C-alpha cells in the first residue's frame, strides 16, 4: 500500500490518498473517491510506501488514472458549471438576495452541485435551493465561504508578482495579526501588507518564528559588545546605541550641576529657609485681669518661692495690703493703752 498527495479543485485542497496498484507521476490527472464522492484531481507528489499501521488513518483512495474519456467528461463538467453559475446568478437577482456568487462545482459523477457564495449577513436561501433543484434535477448545496476562501477559488497574482499562495500550495489558513508586521519592522500601510482578499498577507507568518526567537534573546549592552560582534551588527544600530549613551551621560551631568547650584544657593542665603508648614503662628500672650490676684507660694521660712517671685513683683498692690494688715495687728495687740485710745478706733493709716 502506498500514499500519494492529490490536489483537488474548487477550492484547491491537498489530501493524502491511498493507492494500491495505480502508478502515478507528478502532474498526472486521476479520479479519486473523497468524502463528497468521485472527484477529479492532480498528483503533486509521487506515491510513497505507507508505514505499517497507518493504512486505517487514510480513508480516501485513488480509483484510477485519468483516461481520455475522463478528460472529455471533465471538459463537459466545466461547461455545465459555467451554465449553472449563470442560472444561479439570475435566480439570485430575481429573488433580490444579498449574496455574491463566487463559483459552482459539479462532482465528477454529477450527483451533487455545490455553489460557493459570500454574504455579510445571514441569508435565507431555502426557496433558491428549491428553484435550483428543479432546474438541474440533482442534489444542490449552497456553501457560505469567507473572503480568504474566495481569493483561493478565484486565484490571481500577489504584490510579489507570483501566483497567490492560497491558490497554489497552502492547505489551511493560519491566523495573521498586526504584531507579525511590527515584529519584522515592516511598513504598517494597509495597502502594502494586505492581499487580494483585503486581509493581512499570509506570507507574514513564514518568517515570524525566526524573528520571534531573535527577540527573545537578551539584547547585550553596547559597552559589553566585543569588536567582532560589533562588526556583525549594522552600523545604524551601533550609531543609535552610542547616541543614547551620550544622551544619558549629558542628562546625568546636568542633574549633578543642578544639585551643586542648589546647595550653593542655600549656603549663601542670609536667612534660613523655613517651610510654610513649619512657620510658627504669632499669638499675643494673655493679659491677666486686675481682679485676678496671682497666687504666691511661700516656703516654711516665709520667703517667696522662686516660681512665684516674678509674679509677685509684677503686681505691688498685694504686698502693700499685707504691710497694712501687719501694722493693724500690731496696734491691736498693744496692752498699755485705754480702750478709747487703743485699737477700737482705726488708725489713720487704714
Report on this structure:
- There is one protein chain.
- The chain contains ten helices and eight strands.
- The chain is an alpha+beta fold and 350 residues long.
- Among the domains are: 2-66, no CATH class; 74-145, K homology (KH) domain (GMP Synthetase, Chain A, domain 3); 220-256.
- The strands form two sheets. The protein has a five-stranded antiparallel β-sheet, with no helix packed on it. A three-stranded mixed β-sheet has the order 6-7-8, with helices on both faces.
- Helix 2 links the parallel strand 7 (112-118) and strand 8 (139-144).
- Helix 1 (68-95) crosses helix 2.
- The longest helix has 34 residues, at 235-268.
- The chain starts with a strand and ends in an 18-residue tail after the last helix.
- Residues 273-285, 289-294, 296-317 and 335-350 have low confidence and may be disordered.
Task: Outline the secondary-structure elements.
Elements: E1 2-8, E2 13-19, E3 29-34, E4 37-49, E5 61-65, H1 68-95, E6 100-106, E7 112-118, H2 126-136, E8 139-144, H3 147-154, H4 178-183, H5 190-193, H6 208-216, H7 227-232, H8 235-268, H9 306-314, H10 317-332
Helix pairs in contact: 1-2
Amino acid at each position: 500500500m502506498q500514499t500519494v498527495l492529490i490536489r483537488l479543485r474548487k477550492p484547491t485542497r491537498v489530501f493524502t490518498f491511498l493507492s494500491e496498484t495505480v502508478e502515478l507521476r507528478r502532474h498526472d490527472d486521476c479520479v479519486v473517491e473523497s468524502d463528497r464522492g468521485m472527484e477529479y484531481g492532480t498528483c503533486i507528489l509521487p506515491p510513497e510506501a505507507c508505514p505499517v499501521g497507518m493504512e486505517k488513518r487514510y480513508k480516501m483512495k485513488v480509483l484510477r488514472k485519468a483516461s481520455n474519456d475522463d478528460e472529455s467528461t471533465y471538459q463537459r463538467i466545466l461547461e455545465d458549471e459555467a451554465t449553472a453559475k449563470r442560472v444561479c446568478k439570475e435566480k439570485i437577482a430575481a429573488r433580490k438576495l444579498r449574496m455574491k456568487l463566487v463559483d459552482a462545482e459539479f462532482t465528477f459523477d454529477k450527483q451533487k452541485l455545490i455553489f460557493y457564495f459570500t454574504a455579510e449577513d445571514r441569508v435565507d436561501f431555502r426557496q433558491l435551493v428549491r428553484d435550483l433543484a428543479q432546474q438541474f434535477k440533482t442534489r444542490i448545496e449552497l456553501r457560505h465561504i469567507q473572503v480568504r476562501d474566495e481569493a483561493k477559488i478565484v486565484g490571481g497574482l500577489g504584490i510579489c508578482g507570483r501566483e497567490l499562495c492560497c491558490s497554489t500550495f497552502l492547505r489551511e489558513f493560519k491566523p495573521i495579526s498586526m504584531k507579525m508586521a511590527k515584529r519584522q519592522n515592516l511598513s504598517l500601510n494597509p495597502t502594502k501588507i494586505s492581499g487580494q482578499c483585503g486581509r493581512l498577507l499570509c506570507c507574514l507568518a513564514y518568517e515570524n518564528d525566526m524573528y520571534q526567537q531573535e527577540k527573545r534573546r537578551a539584547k547585550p549592552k553596547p559597552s559589553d559588545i566585543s569588536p567582532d560582534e560589533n562588526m556583525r551588527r549594522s552600523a545604524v544600530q551601533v550609531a543609535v546605541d552610542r547616541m543614547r549613551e551620550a544622551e544619558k551621560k549629558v542628562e546625568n551631568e546636568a542633574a549633578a550641576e543642578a544639585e551643586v547650584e542648589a546647595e550653593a544657593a542655600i549656603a549663601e542665603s542670609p536667612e534660613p529657609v523655613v517651610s510654610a508648614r513649619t512657620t510658627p503662628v504669632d499669638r499675643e500672650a494673655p493679659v491677666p485681669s486686675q481682679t485676678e490676684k496671682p497666687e504666691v507660694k511661700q516656703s516654711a521660712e516665709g520667703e517667696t518661692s522662686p516660681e512665684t517671685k516674678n509674679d509677685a513683683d509684677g503686681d505691688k498692690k498685694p504686698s502693700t495690703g499685707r504691710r497694712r494688715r501687719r501694722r493693724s495687728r500690731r496696734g491691736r495687740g498693744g496692752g498699755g493703752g485705754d480702750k478709747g485710745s487703743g485699737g477700737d478706733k482705726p488708725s489713720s493709716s487704714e
